[in-house]
Structure formats: C-alpha cells, structure tokens
Amino acid sequence: MTELTAPKSSITSSEFADELREQLKYTQGVTVEQATAADVYVAAATAVRRHLMDSWMTTQQDMINGNTKAVGYLSAEFLMGKQLRNALLNAGLTEQFDEAVESLGFDVQDVVDAEYEPGLGNGGLGRLAACFIDSLASLGVPAFGYGIQYKYGIFRQEFDEDGKQVERPDYWLSNEDPWGHIDYGRSQRVNFGGEVVEENGKRVWKPAWAVRAVPVDYMVPGYASGRVNTLRLWQAKSYDEFDLLAFNKSEYMKAVEPQVKAENISKILYPEDSTEVGKELRLEQQYFFTCASIHDAIRVFYPGQDKPDLTTFPDKITFQLNDTHPVIGIPELMRVLIDEYGYDWDTAWTITNKTFNYTCHTLLPEALEVWSAKLIGKLLPRHLEIIKKINEQFMAELTGLTDDAEKIERMRIVTDGKEPAVRMAYLATYAGSHVNGVAELHSQLLKDVTLRDFSDLYDKKFTNVTNGVTPRRFIKLANPRLSNLITEGLGTDKWLEDLDMLEGLVPLAQDDEFVKKFAQVKMDNKIGFSNFAKRNFNIDVDPNTMYNTMIKRLHEYKRQSLKILELIADYADVKAGKLDIDKVTPRTVIFGAKAAPGYYLAKMTIQLINNVAKVVNNDPDIKGKLNVVFVPNYNIRVAQHLIPATELDEQISQAGKEASGTSNMKFALNGALTVGTLDGANVEIRARVGADNFFLFGMTVDEVEAMYANGYDPRKYYESDPRLKGAIDMVASGVFSNGDEDTYEPLVHDWLNKDWFMTLADFTAYHDVQSQIETLYGDQLEWNRKALLNVANSGYFSSDRSIEDYLERIWKTGPMA
Ligand code: T68
C-alpha cells in the first residue's frame, strides 16, 4: 500500500498564484484582468481539486484493494455548505490561497462569497450526513456518501411586506459547480413499473420504464489524514429512447413525456421536515438513489466480475440507512441477489441482514414513513412481492418468539385491511442488523415507546450513537478567533483531530486573564456578525446587546412560539408600566428558520415574529433594549457566522420530541450558554458541561406524558399566568397586525384550545429561568467563565467520536491500513 502523508502542501503562495492564472486561462479562458471574483473562485476550486487528486485516487485504490470494510452512507440529504474553505483547509492551502488571491488583485472575501451554497437538505438530518462523511475521511475510514444531486435544493426564503414567508426556487445548478465531476461512463439503469411474470418457475420483473442514474462525484477530503473519500450524488437522465409509435403519429410532446418524467426524479428536494409526505415522486427518488448505489457498490468492489461471490458483500461494505428514506434498498438488495445473481432466498436474506443498519431520527409518529402497498406495487411490483415475503417470514418468526397475538399483529411490516401499507421503519428494524437513535434519551424512548415491541423481542439490535458535529467546519472555519485562543491555551492545534483535548481548557476557566481573552473573542465575533448582517441583509444588530439565538426548522414541537410569547410578555409589561425598561438587559433575539411550504401554523409563526420585530424594534418606549431579528434564508453560511457570535442559545423543544439537536452542540463548542429543556442531546450536554453551566427549565418527558394522560387544558395556564394572558391577548387584539384581530386567529385558537406541544404549560418556568439568565449576564466574568467551561467540556460532541461509536458498535470496521 502507498505511503500516505497528511496533505500539508509545500507549495508557495506565488506558485499557487501561477496555478490560478493557469486555470483562469485554460479552464475559464480569461486573463487575470478580465477575470471576475467568480472566475477566481472557479479557478481556485479547480486548483484545489487538482491538489487533492492523488490522495483521492490512492484512497480509492486502497479501498478496493485493501481488506478494510467500507461504509456506504445512504442519505436522501447531504447539506454540505460551501466547499472552498473546507477543501483549502484539508489540502493545507489556506494561506497560499489568501496570499495568491490578493497578489492577483482580488478581495479574498469576494472570491469566497462567489461560491453558491448548495441546499441539498432540510436541516439536521442532512447536515449530520455532511459532518459524518467529513469525519469518516478524517479518520481514514473508506466510505462513500450516496445520495441525490437535486437540481433545486431547499427553497430560498424571502419575506414579503406583511412578514410572510415566500418560497423561491433555489436553482443552484444554474451556477458553475466546479466540485462535482459527472461520470457518464459509470451510470446505472434504474427500472420502474410494469409487472412480474412467471418464467421457468421464476418470478421475472418486466419493467415499463427506466431512468439513467448518472453519478456526480464530489471529493470529501479528510483533515490531516491524507485521505479523500467520495460523495456520489446521482442525477436522473432519460435514456434516449423515443416512443417511436407516438413519434410517428407526430405526437411529439407525448413521445418525450417519459424523458421529462425521468429527469423529474432528481429535480427537487422535498422541503418537508418531520412531516409525512405521501408523494409518488418521493418514492421514485428513494428507489432511484438506493438502487443506483447498490449496483455501484457491486461494480466498485467486484470490478469486471460477471459472477461475483456476493456472499462476501457484507465484508466489503456496510450500508447505513439515514432514516427510512433509503429503506427501499432492503428489498432491492434482496431482488438483486435473487433475480440478478441467482442466490436462494435464505442466502440473500443473510447477506441483506448483515449489510444494512438503520438510524432513526425522530420520535414523531407522523414522521415515520408508511407507503401504500398499492403505490409500491405500481412502481416496484417485484419489490412489493419481496416485502410481502419478508413480512410472512417475520410473522412466522414472531410466532416462535411470543404467544402475544396482538403484539404480532401490531408489528406487521405490511398492514392488513382494505388498504395495506408498508411501514418502512419496521422493515428496516427487522431486516437490518442494528437500529440506533441519535441521543441517549432518544434511543431510550425508541426502545420504550416508538419501537417497543421490537426492542422487547430483539433487544440486541438496539443501540445509541449520540450525534456529533465536525470541529473543522464549526470551530476552525466558523470561529478562527476562538480556534487561535484554544490553540494558545492548549499549546497545540492537535485538538482539531482529538476534540477531547478541549478538556485541557478547564483549568483556564479559573484564570481571569484567559477568560477575558475569551470574552474579547466573543465580542469580536459579535461585531463580525453585526457587519455580516448589515452587509448581506441590511439588518442592524447592536453588538452591545446580548445575542440570543434560536435557529432550527420552524416546527410546533421546537416551540419558537414559546420564545416569541416570552418576548411579547416583556414588551406588554413595559407598555403597561409593570417593567422598567431601564432595568432590562439589552438583548437581540435572533431567529433563523424555514417552514415547510404547506405548514400553515409554522408559516403564521414566522409572520408573527416578523411583525413583532417591526413593532418592538421601532417603539421608542423600548429604547433599543429589546430587539428581534429574523435572518432570512437561514443556511450553513448564516450558521457559521451566527453561532460563534451567540451568547445564549435556545433549545426549548417539548421534552421527548427533539431526537437530538445538533446546533446545541455547535453552540456549546463555540461558547454559548444554553437555555433548554431535558430533551434530545441537551441532556448529555448538560451532564457534561455541568448543571451550573446550563439553564434548565420545563417539564420532563414523564411529566409531559402524565399531562397528556390526564388531559391537557392550555386555557388553565392562560388564565393563571397574567403575563402569558397579556401576551396572547396582545397578539389577538391586533397589536402585531395593524389592529386586525383576525390575522393570527388560527394561531391564538390553537394556543388556547389545543397547544399539542404544551407551550403554555412551560411558559411560567421559562420566564423564571430568564430571570436567572439576566442576573448572570450582569456578571460578565462569571458568564464567560461558564461559557468557556461549555467549550472545554463539549469535546465529546465531535462527529469524530460519533463515527468511532458507529465503527465499534455497528459497522465493525475502521481506518484503512
Ligand atoms: C433531525 N431530523 C432531528 N429530519 O429532528 C434532530 N427530512 O433532532 C436531529 O438532531 C437530526 O435529525 C440529526 O439526527 C431531521 O432533520 C429531516 O430533515 C427530514 C425529515 C423527513 C424528511 C426529510
């Protein structure tokens, strides 16, 4: 095997400038004088790719020739963020780039800004996939990320003059994408529809139409590992097969219909988060990328072999199913093994069972995918047969495991009745080797509630892997000031490869001088964000206010309502003369959130927040002390600027609803204090940073359950807390809708009559903890000491640690030799 060195490039800035000139000339066809910042960006991207090319090729060779099992991370979403800075960091070219760009007469920021951020994910799930492939490469583990290259990513969010969310298409591929390499020669055929017939005693699928899956390869460079893995995103192309009959009749439009249909498959990312979408196109997408990926893995690991020995497949690669979206891959592998390679059912089952593992990311029952059997039968008739047979086998197995007939009935993968449906989470749980949740509490609740029957009978399958985030992007790139201070404090920069080393900062929290430096970093980051917000959104943010941030998808369970009601209550108190504005800690509450386009109450919440901002920010009685900012189109770039500047982070979901959360980890690592409930990974963050350094409030999971059981009446809380009543009445009376009492009626009605996630029940506790926050904030040295302890004790939340847990508990593989 080839000797590997960490990619610390030895080339000089002027050599790199020469490479940029060369790329400008031979790739873009422009002189330096003609070039725009966007040209320089493309030139730089192309140059960095060239630097990574040898490591990429060596990594692929070693993966195929070596004996280390690879990981195939199957995910419908990869929310990568911009690539240039990350690629430069991992290629060891950051300084050379900065100097070269300046020497060519360009502004470094302009060049970096020219990159358009791809939004190929909805939120935490997609970003987790991106962190995981970064860590896999950094740990030197052979891995593929497999997904879809959507033409349109998550919609671009704007606000209209009424403060309502407007969704604009995000045609990111209309710009040059210098990172993706389209490999037409390695495309795969993906079939759909048709029927299954009996031929010579065999079931044979006769598909009705097909699409061509073309791989677009992205390099995934590891940090200081010398390894470069591959993210392979599939693009749907039509086969050039015309319907000749239709064409001859001059029905041209009809003749190209299948082509249009085929290319629609990778056209758009579904902008849904945690809600069920029962769309045919979505199932087509899921099958499209899992089918192509499975065939691709066989091609990669058994090159040129007509009759490969696929009993060794689970030793070559292990597939991780990122939520239920790729679960259709299970019957697909069965089909491939039986129909295409002639294995018997039991052999195929053993291989399939060993190959797949499933990660669940939710606790909301409505987010667990269920497909109608009819639809599966229409699109994938052979797969439906296989799923039914798996279900039969499962039912028979269960009969041997338990006498509880009701339980067996509850566990059906294919439901009974008039309109049978396939429960993808159950299929994944039964067919794969392991099932994991994404935080300790979540994994426990999966076992106790969501997949209770399964954990009773298959306890060994269940495990936990707490999520993590990559310190390269979310500390080193996002927060260079803090990174430098950490390196100064620890005397080394090795912490970027071993984040547990942050613990070395614990003693420095007692060193007032160091804490003051830390406070200065935060202040500089606040000023940085203020400039960023002004430059990009023309929003004014005063760095002399506390930055209090809530960034995540807009969802009722996450309870942005709780945050805005608390703020409104303060505002109402000031207006009523019950609160002296001069005694209030100056604060800027910063929101970033997209709502699913069809999610009515979520969109109304955005409208309310925007209008609260309008009223409160402009009320002279407030004297600029309470400010609300809604940053439009929240994305990775905004996160990278906002998280390092934040002092107080909101993680206030109803206990038992947020599977993990990952921004909570990013905030703690960047020295924000968290106000949060005992939910998701908050529990583990609090345990590590210490209860004294975390603002806890609200009901526990048990209390929430008890309240559901006893009947929850939100009105009781409305009547008993005058602040809460005042806030809701203010919304209802039209203060934030120019006097119109109808605008927010549906929201108000929901709060008072349903409030499924118990925002009102937690309101008083939330207010009480805010008082503690204000008191502590008054003592800046103490506040910053606690914030520094958050940094020092959060090393556990590196995605490197998560990947190590997956390697040990699930994948049973490791770095390449
Ligand atoms: C999130 N889930 C969890 N789902 O909500 C969050 N996309 O607690 C957790 O930290 C994170 O996953 C990582 O584990 C999502 O982000 C989606 O984005 C989603 C759901 C359905 C369909 C598409």
TrEMBL record:
The modification N6-(pyridoxal phosphate)lysine is found at K666. Its EC number is 2.4.1.1. Coiled coil: none annotated. GO terms for molecular function: glycogen phosphorylase activity; pyridoxal phosphate binding. It is an enzyme of class 2 (transferase). Pfam families: Phosphorylase. Transmembrane segments: none annotated. Keywords: Carbohydrate metabolism, Glycosyltransferase, Pyridoxal phosphate, Transferase. It catalyses: [(1->4)-alpha-D-glucosyl](n) + phosphate = [(1->4)-alpha-D-glucosyl](n-1) + alpha-D-glucose 1-phosphate. Its cofactor is pyridoxal 5'-phosphate. GO terms for cellular component: cytoplasm. One of its GO terms (biological process) is glycogen catabolic process. It comes from the Bacteria. Allosteric enzyme that catalyzes the rate-limiting step in glycogen catabolism, the phosphorolytic cleavage of glycogen to produce glucose-1-phosphate, and plays a central role in maintaining cellular and organismal glucose homeostasis. Belongs to the glycogen phosphorylase family. PANTHER family: GLYCOGEN PHOSPHORYLASE (PTHR11468), GLYCOGEN PHOSPHORYLASE, LIVER FORM (PTHR11468:SF3). This is Alpha-1,4 glucan phosphorylase. It comes from Bifidobacterium magnum. The lineage of its organism: Bacteria, Bacillati, Actinomycetota, Actinomycetes, Bifidobacteriales.
